[in-house]
Specification:
The chain is an all-beta fold. The chain is built from no helices and 36 strands. The strands form six sheets. Strands 3-6-9-12-15-18-21-24-27-31-28 form an eleven-stranded mixed sheet, with no helix packed on it. The N and C termini lie far apart (59 Å).
């Protein structure tokens, strides 16, 4: 597609399989009414969006759905863009995006597969984001995950007074109808802006979330304008201290919040142990941080925990989080 799109349809487009390679001056593969990918090996290098559906007049259309296949997407703007919904059920997706990794104007759902976003402005963006499965990793120059309606209304008349600021609440007024819900899967975020950001509410009931968040005090590893309710799963968020937030006090699962007296260098190992010496957390930082928030079934309200810094750790990790670590040392 030396002039415009690589593959485009006036109505719906279904890719069931095959070996497809696209280089496009604008969008790589575009289905006007919808784009469905069920399989195949697909490589796209597009100056615009890599995958796209842009029907705006019918709310039942304008969606991208991926149920399988191997996708290697490089884009000048969004890698996956849809008006109504992006649904990822399976597949192996690699993304390097000039703008958002996956962007939906409304619904964004991931229930399976592997999604690896190695470059993006914002990694995942939508009005309602639901993650129930899959292995997701995000590197972003701004927000890692962002729930937004695109209006910028959360910044109008907000400020710290909207919810009082501090632990357990956002600094802006939440927008009704916007939310993120995580019930399963793994989500690892490395963000220069806000890590896990919702201009509405957020709920975590399962899965594992690791946020290696910002180093600037103008952003936070967690930034939820409404309630951030945690009832299950593991949530680890580390970053700067200036805008640090914790899950809401009404959460069913307890939270441990740490603020260090000075910036801890990248590569440092944080070990948290219960009173009986049992390891609750072993985590190695990929960037400098000043605050750390952990919500886990291993944390019990009213209990005391010992925090060790430094030491050495080896084994398999998820975003620096070691599930079965080989740990020595620490003070």
């Amino acid at each position: 597609g030396n002039y415009n799109d690589g593959i485009a349809s006036k109505d719906g487009l279904v890719i069931a399989g095959g070996d497809i390679s696209v280089i496009a001056a604008d969008d790589g593969i575009r289905g006007k009414d919808y784009l469905v990918i069920n399989g195949g090996s697909i490589r796209v290098d597009a100056s615009g969006d890599a995958l796209k559906s842009d029907e705006e007049d019918d709310p039942s259309l304008g969606y991208v759905r991926i149920t399988g296949g191997t996708l290697d997407l490089t884009s000048g703007t969004d890698a996956i863009e849809a008006v109504t919904a992006v649904i990822v059920e399976d597949g192996d997706i690699a993304i390097a995006a000039g703008d958002d990794g996956i962007h939906s104007e409304a619904w964004l759902e991931i229930s399976g597969g592997t999604t690896d976003i190695t470059r993006s402005y914002e990694g995942l963006e939508g009005g309602q984001i639901v993650i129930s499965g899959g292995d997701i990793s995000v590197v972003s120059s701004d927000d890692g995950l962002n729930v937004s309606d695109g209006s910028g209304a959360a910044q109008a008349g907000g400020g710290r007074g909207a919810r009082g600021g501090g632990p357990g609440g956002g600094f802006e007024t939440p927008i009704e109808g916007l939310f993120v819900e995580v019930t399963g899967g793994t989500l690892v975020i490395d963000a220069d802006g806000d890590g896990f950001d919702s201009n509405g509410s957020a709920a975590v009931s399962g899965g594992t979330i690791v946020v290696n968040g910002p180093t600037s005090n103008g952003d936070g590893a967690l930034d939820v304008n409404g309630e951030l309710l945690v009832s299950g799963g593991t949530l680890l968020a580390a970053g700067s201290a200036g805008m640090a937030e914790t899950p809401s006090a009404s959460s069913e699962q307890a939270t441990l919040a740490l603020r260090f007296g000075s910036t801890v260098a990248a590569g440092a190992v944080v070990r948290i142990e219960a009173e009986d010496g049992r390891a609750v957390l072993t985590w190695e930082a990929s960037k400098p941080f000043e605050s750390l928030v952990l919500s886990s079934p291993e944390i019990e309200a009213g209990k005391s925990y010992e925090v060790l810094l430094e030491g050495e750790v080896s084994g398999d990790s998820l975003g620096g989080l070691y599930l079965e670590p080989d740990y020595t040392g620490g003070t």
